[in-house]
Fold each of these.
Amino acid sequence: MINEKSTKSEVMEAVKQNGYVLCYASEELRNDRDVVLEAIKQYGYALYYASEALRADREFVLEAVKQNGLALYYARFWLVTNFPCGIIDPAIIPTF
């Protein structure tokens, strides 16, 4: 079982099998590009558990959306900055 004391290699192996387990990883590993990328390739919704910086990273958002289009819901910054004014009101997009 993954927890906040798990090593990067332990978390990498776990997220390859089930991206959801990213939620049990340490904050440091939820900000690790390699770990998060593996998690979202397996489970797009894992974007929710990624650091705020990675949720705002276009590469990560697009990868998550390739796995599950609904993962776009967790990419607040990307939504607000990449759609023309007036289409999406930032006030209606949830913050996490």
Note: The mean pLDDT is 84.
Amino acid sequence: METNMMILAGLGLIVSAVTTWWYKNKSNVLKKVADELEDRIEDATGLDIELDSVIDDVVSAAESVAEEVHESVVVSLESGDFDVNTLKSLTVSALKDELKKIGLPVSGKKADLIARLIAASKE
């Protein structure tokens, strides 16, 4: 369990740094994405549309989902008990993200990723 606590502490520092960067740079990044998409749509269709609010809505929804998944995994790590059904419901991408956050390999099939997370929670 001591390993899990060290992993969580490191994870907390990383998440804090990424979160700080994201909130500092979010508006600039989203503006660039919206501008690029608008230009490509206009080139392809001739339509001049504005996507700023749509991009903001999509990113907000994605942030909410990512936060829920992250909180679920952290609670499972802290308790040392991963619910296999919860892990099975996650996408391979989400499983890999969680493995990256705790410094574990991300290769293999979904079952391998789940097994790796379960093993890490028992250390």
Note: Residues 2-122 form one domain.
Amino acid sequence: MLGANLDGEAVIPPAWQVDAGTRIAIVRAPLLASAVAMQGQHTKELNSGDRFAFGNNWARFLRDLSDTRIMEATRSLQHMLRVDDLRGKRFLDIGSGSGLFSLAARKLGAVVLSFDYDPESVACTEHLRQMNDLADAEWRVETGSVLDEDYLRTLGTWDVVYSWGVLHHTGKMWDALGSVSPLVAPGGLLFIAIYNDQREVSKWWRWLKRTYNRLPSPLRLPYTVVVMGPLEVLRFVATTARTRNPRAYFKAIGAYAKDKRGMSYWHDLVDWIGGYPFEVASPEAVFEFYRVRGFELLSLKTCGGRWGCNEFVFRRSTASP
């Protein structure tokens, strides 16, 4: 978990290419008053059980970050955006989380701005930026909210706006979906992922997620096992029956990083059971929302009607106001 040293600097756990036991002090500028207020609101939401500690989970994920995961994240970005590189492009990462996809965009040559509402996520992203190149002036990391209109007005427009699995955690998903539209330059790309609407099943998941966040911390791991354990058993049985190989389930977990954008199976599972606020939308609803705002759908990757995220890549019309 992130903490602070005696000088008050943010400290995060060991990450990729960091020796075991090492802790990294994040070098950062003094926070603006608005960012301080935002952090206070974030702490209040955590303490009341109204928000999952996403940054805490991302900090743990960074302990397992490897060059292989970074490579898979970079490949997934190239695949969905249908590009070989992002040289000469400006990339805005909204809700940067661990910072992995900001790093991927930077490695593809983009000028990057990352921002997140969660202070621990900001620290994780800043850590990756410093690990990649401490003096890099073409990757900035900030504290900000996609619901803060004053902040968004300072950002201008971007060639690629990226927000994977973030906007449905704001508590005001449709407002957030609308807020990102003006940030995309005419002809630019918007890459988002939004939880699939399963109607009554989604209501059940919302209750389970809210319960997780209102439990005392020591009870959250047992709760995760109780809720997700039976589902994993069913997945094991189904995979074994389909492949006639009891090892296939474990091979799938081992290959998760390659198949799932460089992510971690366990950390994604914790993010799923804990991820709150929680809102959902059907692919059709998201498509129509952006169609009337002058966006053309270029790519769609659904989760097949199951629980999970549907991924969208839109292009903003060059005639957009």
Note: The CA atoms of residues 22 and 107 lie 25 Å apart.
Amino acid sequence: MCYRISNLLLAFYGLLLFAILITPQKAKAQEWSEPVYITTPYDMIYISQSDMIIDKNGVLHIVWVQRFGSTTNSFLVYIKSINQGRDWTEPITLTLGIGYLIYNPILALYSDNTVLLSYFSLKTEVEQSRIFLKKLEGDIWGDEIAVNGSHDYRYWLRTHCLAIDSNDKAYILWPKADLSCTLIVTYFNNQFSTIVQGPTDNVKRFTTGKAIFDKNDVLHYSGFRGNTIGYSYYSSGQWLPFNLVDDSYKYHDFTLDKESIPYFVLNSVIDGGSTMFGNYYRNRWYFEKIASGYSESHSLFIEQNGTKHIAGSWGNSLKYYRNNNDGWTDTLLESRYSIYNKLLAKDSLLYLLSNIRINNERTYLEIRKMAIENQVGIQEQPQLVDKKINIYPNPARETVNINFFSPEGQATIKIIDLQGKQIFSTTVKNSNMGIFDFQWNRMCAKGNAATTGIYFVVIQAGEQVFAEKVVLF
């Protein structure tokens, strides 16, 4: 009898152990690593601005502007890491500003892995103050390149934008000196284009904030003016209407998800101040409150699985917020104010670069990282090049923007389904120097909305006929 009981107990415990082993285990929560100091809290230096980029080989590149106390002297410093931020090279001084100040360093990456740097130098003689470029090819930094026309600049704003499209054309944007508009110049094959003037009507006059190209080479752009943040996009020489967020403060950040939908984190001045997160969808803003109180130095990153990450300064604290599509959680990272934060991902690692302030004369740079799903960064997705038709967003939920170039005076646009049936047709006229712009609202010729699926946009302009696929969902 005892022998039979022992066998029964053994069988019971065996089944219990098997059940434990096959029961799905809850994944361990994502956690940030301990920070690695790039400059230490004990260094008697003040870093005013910085930026970071990760190249195709996973090398981390960082630049910062370092000041000499309260003097008008500054210098631009570069450093890199080849082992995911564990060790760093000795700092290199790229530009020494004796008697003038350097502002707003921005890093961007060409398709051949060349790093492009832009920055603004505020010199004693105003006419010599302008935006400059430098290129890092291999391990060698090139000479300073003065950006054409950038002396026409609103100096006290000290801000500009830099972005590179899939054809390796760099776009530099900055506010015109009289704040009447944004100026744009491109840099391609070591040549600058003529300056393009942005919208000049009053509701579209904004200080430059950030610029990002999506996978269809549409330039998404943000700026601010007073208690209003503006967002627009620019394609083939055309600005689309600015969309405004009223009752918001200038501190904000935005990024694009994998479908090129813009998401923002910003401050609202309503109810004594709060931090809001939202997107621009179907020609409307949608925001939710994620925290009370004003916040600054925001950075926003969205994984391809939709997980949202936000870092910023709330009062004298550096905090991190995450939403796995089931609500926001927050983590205190530092009990100190961070002047600057940047979230950036490469493969399965998310990095956070922060510039922590000790006092008005001392700051230090630190970097931490977190494991995330292995992914190709949203800004690194394959780009569509040499397209005769620019369609965005694509895939699209509602309005489809169709943009193309032709010297003809008019063109016919047809929408064809997969069965070859024409569901929509219209004739459009040349709007601006050969550029055609048309917005299709998914309505068919019979008055019903096109259903979810794959369609073809077919354009005939004179003897030219070209087509492009669009996905509706």
Note: The chain has two domains: 36-380, 389-472.
